[in-house]
Structure formats: C-alpha cells, structure tokens
C-alpha cells in the first residue's frame, strides 16, 4: 500500500515533535546543571535533583521502588542517585518501621536548607522555558505531553 502525502506529512511532524522533545530535554538538563553550579549546588546533578524534587513533593519518605515508579526510571538507576546523594549529605536512608526489608529515603536538613535555592533554580528554568507563553498555552502543552507519556506508558 502506498503512503499518501498527508500520511507522510503526519509522520514527519511526529518525527519532528519527537526530536524537539529530545532536544528540549537535553537543553533543560544542561541549563539546570549550569544553574545548579551558579547557585553553589554543584554536588547535585540534574538527574539527582529529580529525586529531591519528588521527595519534597511527596512530603514523606519514599522507597527507591516508589521513587523509580514516580520518575519512570529503573530501581538500579534511582539507587545510584540515592547513594550519590547520601554520600554528599542530601538524603538519608533509614529502615521502614512498617517493613524491615524496606529502606526509606528522606531529605536531610541540608536539603531542606537548600530548598529555597533549588526552587530558584527550578523557577528560573521554567520562566526561561515558557517565556512568552500564555497560561492557556502552557496548559495545552502540559495536556499534550501528558497524553504522549500516557500513550507510551499504556504500551508497556
């Protein structure tokens, strides 16, 4: 069966969207890294920052399995992030009183003290990324990217 011009155009648009999302992700990671260094927070990487953000958002200690699920990463990867963060004093691990086999991860006092700087980094990046967009356009982007993520998650 031959591909029509409109089908080919749609496929190109899909490819362009995918490539743009990939480029955006890489650029965001690079800019976050720069902002972290500028803020004196160079001992946390952008990927490790995701662990801290989830811990702060959940307002409760989490297991590596829970963090991995929230972040869409493997437990092994999240475990590496947690060990690195623990090594420089950003998180601590403790036994779960409800399940002696589980280890809970929580931010340290150092992490809570740095939270205002972390928020400044996040806000500066978001302000730059979404400059010129209306609230309605940002809502549309959020809905659209969530749909793409949900489509990919549902195929696992």
TrEMBL record:
Chain segments annotated as coiled-coil in the UniProt record: none
Matches recorded under SMART domains: HTH_MARR
Gene Ontology process terms (BP): response to stress
One Gene Ontology MF term: DNA-binding transcription factor activity
KW DNA-binding (keyword) present: yes
HTH marR-type domain ranges (all copies): 14-150
Record key words, sorted: DNA-binding
Cross-referenced Pfam families: MarR (PF01047)
Transmembrane regions listed in the UniProt entry: none
InterPro entries in the record: HTH_MarR-typ (IPR000835), MarR/SlyA-like (IPR039422), WH-like_DNA-bd_sf (IPR036388), WH_DNA-bd_sf (IPR036390)
Protein name: DNA-binding transcriptional regulator, MarR family
């Amino acid at each position: 069966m031959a591909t029509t011009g409109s089908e080919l155009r749609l496929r190109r648009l899909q490819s362009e969207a995918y490539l743009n999302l990939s480029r955006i992700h890489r650029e965001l990671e690079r800019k976050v890294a720069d902002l972290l260094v500028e803020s004196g927070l160079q001992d946390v990487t952008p990927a490790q920052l995701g662990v801290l953000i989830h811990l702060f958002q959940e307002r409760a200690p989490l297991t590596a399995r829970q963090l991995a699920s929230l972040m869409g990463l493997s437990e092994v990867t999240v475990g590496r992030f947690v060990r690195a963060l623990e090594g420089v004093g950003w998180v601590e691990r403790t036994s779960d009183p409800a399940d002696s086999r589980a280890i809970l991860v929580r931010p340290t006092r150092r992490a809570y003290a740095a939270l205002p700087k972390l928020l400044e980094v996040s806000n500066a990046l978001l302000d730059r990324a979404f400059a010129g967009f209306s609230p309605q356009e940002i809502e549309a982007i959020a809905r659209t990217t969530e749909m793409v993520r949900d489509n990919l998650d549902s195929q696992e």
